[in-house]
Amino acid sequence: MPRIKLDRVCAEYTLLSVLDYNLKHRIAQLARRRKAAPVVIQALRSVDLEFEAGARIGLVGANGAGKSTLLAIMAGLLPPTSGAVEVEGRVLALLGGAGAGLTQEATGRENIVSMGVQLGESPDAMRARVDGIVEFSGLEDRIQHPVYSYSAGMQSRLRFSILTSLRPDILLLDEGLGTADAEFTARANARLNEFISGAGILVLASHGDGLLKEQCKDAIWLHQGVIASTGPVESVLEEYHASYEQPGLIK
Amino acid sequence: MTTPTWTTWHGYAALDAPPGERARAATGDLAEGFRRWRLWTFLALNEIKSQYSRTVVGPWWLTLQTLVYVAGITFLFGTLFHQPVRVFLPYVAIGVIVFSLLGGMTRFCANVFVGEASSIVSSRQPLSALLLRGVSVEFLQFAHHLVILVVIAAAGLLVFNVATLLVIPALLLIALNGFALGLWLAPAVARFRDIGPVVASVLQMLSFFTPIFWRVDSLSGQKRASLLAWNPFYYLLETIRGPLLGNAALHPFVGAVVITAVNVGAGMLVFSHTRSRIPYWIS
Fold first, then answer.
1. Are both A117 and A13 inside the same structural domain?
2. Total number of domains constituting chain A
3. Fewer Cβ close by (within 10 Å): the C or N end of chain A?
């Protein structure tokens, strides 16, 4: 059974400027015995949580609250600075910019196969799935064109179609479908419902209340890297919205 | 359904994990990388195929360039150093082709984690598989260049005997070195980006310092010849060139094995120390 458990998970980004990526600069600093204290951003501060099969969790919070970092850690794409992460089941995550992980010069069709192979499928298994994925994505003839010719919406449609066809146990979505159109969103929601009824875990970070209420049962409100509130999606959204409408409410 | 491979290897160790745990996560990455050979062989073949689809002649274009280079160098330096073509041509050809394999792998290793950042932060995959894919691409390109040697062999200018078989372990050593180089050079460049251009200029220096278009015996008796002993490319090149020219010797292999040991050691050390930090450095 799929399961996610985070135990006192912290994530800190050390802000590296262009100069910090420069070895010559670093050596010069050492020679001068001058070392400026690095700027550290605490994206997550001791987050504990546990999701069992069938969980449908919405992640809400302001920009920079740590939603994407939390998803990346659950997806195994980013290690925590400290703390323990236990994930059971196959995790697939739709994170990053629209085209993240797609080879821009390759066609949509080629990307379907190579992305699936990258995620652990065999080339033959992916070739057998191509037609179904193309159909679901609604990209039709454009699938023969290189991905750089796609709009952001088309790229995220393609990625969503590939990932959900791979039958994950745990699906992590950042900002839902981003810029996909209404027709595709409806189809995608249907597929998400199908996925959820199969006892998977869905974690969805979004600023869209409608999407969250439709897809999630519970929600987590992240505020500056800390879980500010958890509970049924409606009440968490209410608390979250109240927090910026009535400043000073946050504990 | 495919078997669930994603539960069999643990991803990244926490940044504050003890060294033992980080080393386990790193060796887990390597094991998973090798285990997914279908992944990187497929992606490497794909890369070569896409070169074909872009320019029709694809990788042969580079082979043609290499051929022109070999011919030019043989003519120029053969004339300058009064070398007979029948001796000098195979010497230069093997040198240029093997050096371009070594240089190609080095250039790839320097940039792989930075270049593949978007893939690393969006698809969970062993980082070692990215290195294995790059090494495979360079070997596929090398295989195209081998045609030049086939022509030279057909002209009867190469020596084939029992010692020729030494080429096989030599190529394996070179592949292993390319992979191990990536384990320490790729994280180093991910952290300090200005190492990339340094690698490029070191490679250019090496193309002169490695005996490709001049002969080692022309240095004999000179003290400075010992400087060559500090060039890893020379040893790796000689493990291939020696057997093919009929003068296989032990010392290039001893040198190559020592280089490999140091390289693999450095790779394991740096990779297990830095692996968890790589996504932070490139994101």
1. no
2. 2
3. C
DSSP letters spanning A115-137:
HHHHTT--HHHHHHHHHHHHHHH
Q: What is the CATH number of the domain that holds A251?
A: 3.40.50.300
Contact A22 B194 (CB under 8 A): yes
ipTM of the complex in this document:
0.88
- pLDDT above 90 for B72: yes
A24 touches chain B (CB under 8 A): yes
**A63 and A107 in a common domain:** no
- B1-15 tens-digit pLDDT: 333 344 445 689 999
A214 and A233 co-located in one domain: yes
To the nearest whole angstrom, how far is the Cα of A249 from the nearest Cα of chain B? Answer: 33
Are residue A80 and residue A123 in the same domain, yes or no?
no
How far is C-alpha A52 from the chain's CA centre?
18
Per-residue pLDDT, A175 = 77
Apex A71 CA angle, A216 and B122, nearest 5: 120
Instruction: Return residues 22-41 of B near A (CB < 8 Å).
Output: 36, 38-39
User: Which range has the worst mean pLDDT, A181-190, B168-177, B217-226?
Assistant: B217-226
Q: Containing H/E element for B271?
A: helix B250-274
From B22's Cα to the closest Cα of chain A, the distance in A is: 11
Structural domain range at position A114: 99-167
Residues A148 and A47 in one domain: no
Which of A138, A167, A196 is a domain's end point?
A167
d(CA A87, CA B62): 46
Query: Are the C-beta atoms of A201 and A43 separated by less than 8 Å?
Result: no
Is position A33 within any domain?
no
pLDDT of residue A32: 78
pLDDT per position as a tens digit, A81-134: 999 999 998 898 888 777 888 988 889 999 999 999 988 888 999 999 999 999
Q: Which residue has the higher pLDDT, A194 or B252?
A: B252
Residue whose token pair is 């980013």: A78
Residue A233 belongs to a domain? yes
